[in-house]
Amino acid sequence: MMATKNISRSAFFILTGKPSHEACIKSPFVNIPSQRSLFNPAMQPMIADGEDRDELTKVLPTLLECGWQLDENDSGVRKIYHLKTYTKVLDLHHSIGVGSKSKNHHPEMTTKSGSLAVHWTTHHPRGLSAKDIFMAKYCDEVARTIGTVDELDAQRCGPSSSQTK
User: Fold this and answer.
1) Span 8-57, pLDDT tens digits
2) Are 122 and 92 in contact (CB under 8 A)?
3) Domain assignment present for 93
4) CATH number for the domain that contains residue 54
């Protein structure tokens, strides 16, 4: 049995291939909820061929409650994390990159001075997969460790308020 008491959640993931027990960030510091983030049983997300549709549609509402949203094609999930500094944005980007490399599944990420937008979808076969769900939960764990903030408290481009006086 592996001793995991003194390692971070992201290191635990890399070593074991499993996220820790905490599944997501339930915080006001991520996406503002929209209709796409509220699970409607009538919605039919595009599930990748070969995936267990029942299992994925069972776990999807929990992911959406954590601030993830179905993308415009209902074939992936996306979320925006807001962070206090650009360094923390880069830390999150890098940590997600390392974790995704270990799973051979890569997101689309857009880095800005105070935010990181993450989009998970499976390209072959096209649609939402268990890897997308797994990696979305991993992103929430890493973001929790690094620390997200309210969008208004995230770093912005331009002069600081002390430079405009």
Assistant:
1) 444 444 444 554 444 455 444 444 444 444 445 556 889 989 999 999 98
2) no
3) yes
4) 3.30.1360.20
